[in-house]
Amino acid sequence: MAAMLLEAKGISKYFGAITALRDVNFHVAPGEVLGVVGDNGAGKSTLMKILSGLFTPSEGELVFNGAPVKFGSPKDAQKLGIEMVYQDFALAGNMPIYENIYLGREPGTKFGPLTIVDHKRSRQMATDHLDRLHIHVKSVEQNTEDLSGGQRQAVAIARATAFDAKLVIMDEPTAALAIKEVGKVLDLVRSLKEHGVAVIIISHRMDDIFYCCDRVMALYQGTNFAEAELTQTSRNEVIGWIMGTKGHTATLAHDNMH
Amino acid sequence: MSDTPATKSGFSLRGPGMSKFLEVYGIILVVVVMMLVLAVIKPEVFLSAQNLTNILKQNASLALLALGMYVVIVTAGIDLSVGSIMGLSMVCLAVASKAGVPWPIVLLIGPAIGLLVGWVNGVGLTVLKLPHPFIMTLGTLNVARGLTYLISNGAPISGLQPEVRFIGQAYFGFGMAPPAGIPASMLLVAVCAIGLWFFLEKTNMGRHIFAIGGNPHAARVSGINVDRTLVVVYMISGFMAGLSGLLLAGRTDSGFPNAGIGIELDAIAAVIIGGASFFGGRGTVLGVLAGVLIMGILRNGLNINNVSAFWQQILIGLVIIIAVYIDVLRRRAAVRR
Question: Cβ of B76 under 8 Å from any chain A Cβ?
Fold first, then answer.
């Protein structure tokens, strides 16, 4: 098996008396697309928040490219190339595409605490970057509030990958999209993979998982429940995992859905 | 810039280029039209150099307050304390001037007090996590006004050093016969406006201020220190209010404790009339200056036509409502796209 990009070993997370995660192990390789599934409260988002530096684990350790790491804030994770794409896109609608892509990391000349932003360079960098990802927009000057859901998601992904990202974590990337746009965003995920970027997709939609993931792992009540290469499992088995059942036949799991 | 989705969705009656142009410069047109109307009605009075100079001079303090308020409103906040900061600055610098403090230090007192109260506003908002800046600045509005009365004992203090009066009173004739000329206060407004424009449009912190106004969550996850930025925002507003206190003290040669009562509402009105959105994230420095001029010219025009001050207030109220209604219509059109 290839060297791991990011590993989590024996992660537990307690919020007071509540155990959100118990002894969870996790790994993702460069260029791998991993689907993470689980019911509400299974610990998916807690785990992702630990991976992206928003939470620190109560127990266990994170290993990045073979070396143990500790994240004090999302900035620390970003420095290593771990980026998060939020379900609501987290874009400033009143600002143009290119400013959103470089928000907080504007190119320009530094003067003490201030940076004089080089808008021209920023526009050019954004245009080039979107071209690389085969994302088509009319102009990087468009405000993101004028874009469709799919275009916004594309801009959010472009922002996540603007600075040599190694791992992009996507929280329900298709939940807020029109059906006809879902395919485009998933194709974008595939093209990230081709660029060697690892992607973690949290999703409830089996279609998403089975369209672009290499491997799927299920969390159940804060623990590792099951995991398999995509070729070794089926939709109904994965749906069974989400509900905490193993070994059911396809028909049984399907019946449980209704 | 030239093509937005509007072109495609049958919304092209007013092309996006035109609507963008109107959004930015429409407000200037309003100022020009008002001036033309007044020039036709009262050419000999309105167009006199003295009257035009007066309009600029009388509105310089309001312009500074409005510029500071604009930065706050871009973050979807509000600063009710600016009028009180102005009064407190005036009284403090007047006391210092009378006490014989060297004039360079006296000049710094107003802006320094503004920065201090602004810092308190920002810290109160972000550290105490008060639910809305309205509350924190309503508090400092009262505290600063109370201090103003305490320090001045409720009475005006007049007789400032000439250097302190300079910025509020000086004129540069440029060959024009006094009292016409370019007031020094107007130059100060111009410098502040250009500086603020540069800060907001060209620096990362300026862009972060707009991002906070557009979507605070997006700003936070982009690694922007939202709390620190907000503290700076309220300090800018306070600084401008202190500076405007210095101007008014110079112009009136005194520090009077009632100065600036209610003027925060004029500043808010000017910003809103100038096209900044009360919901944050939108507006231009040019629009704010136009908003100040619209209020100033409206008052001046009604004055020189002998319309009572009561009517002025009614008209300004209506202008505010119409200006915000236009903003509402614009947003609705944007949603329909």
Answer: no
User: Which two structure tokens, joined as six digits, stand for B225?
Assistant: 């220190």
pTM value is: 0.88
Give residue for tokens 């600055």. Answer: B89
pLDDT tens by residue, B283-325: 999 999 999 999 999 999 999 999 888 888 898 899 888 888 8
Cα nearest neighbour of A90 on chain B: B218
Q: Is residue A197 a part of any domain in this protein?
A: yes
Amino acid (one-letter) located at A65 = N
Q: Across chain B, how many H-helices and E-strands are there? A: 14, 4
| Structure tokens that stand for A168 in this block | 């992009």
Domain contains A82: yes
Q: Is A225 inside a domain boundary? A: yes
Q: Going by DSSP bridges, is the β-strand pair A167-171/A198-202 parallel, antiparallel, or unpaired?
A: parallel
Start-to-end CA distance of chain A, whole Å, equals 39
Q: Is residue A147 part of a domain?
A: no
Please provide the distance, in angstroms rounded to a whole number, between the alpha carbons at the two ends of chain B: 16
What does the domain layout of chain B look like in residue ranges?
58-260
Determine how many CB atoms are found less than 10 A away from the CB of residue A101: 26
Q: Are strands A215-220 and A33-37 parallel, antiparallel or unpaired?
A: parallel
ipTM over 0.90: no
Q: Kindly report the CA angle at B102 between B98 and B108, in degrees rounded to 5? A: 95
- Domain span at residue A214 reads 6-92+165-256
- CATH code at A24? 3.40.50.300
CB A189 within 8 A of CB A135: no
Question: What span, in angstroms and rounded, lies between the C-alpha atoms of A121 and A140?
Answer: 12
How many domains are contained in chain A? 1
CA-based nearest distance A71→chain B, Å: 14
From A165, A159, A156, A169, select the one nearest A33 (Cα to Cα). Answer: A169
What burial letters (b/e) apply to A60-85, b meaning 16+ CB within 10 Å? Answer: bebebeeeebebeebeebbebbbbbb
Q: So what's the pLDDT on residue A24?
A: 92
| Cα–Cα distance, B276 to A55 (Å, whole number) | 37
Of the candidates B3, B213, B217, which has its C-beta nearest A139's C-beta? B3
Q: How deeply is A105 buried, as exposed, middle or buried, from its count of CB atoms within 10 A (0-12, 13-18, 19+)? A: middle
Give the distance, in angstroms, between the CA of residue A16 and the centroid of all CA atoms in the same chain. 27
* Alpha carbon of A223: minimum distance to chain B alpha carbons (Å): 27
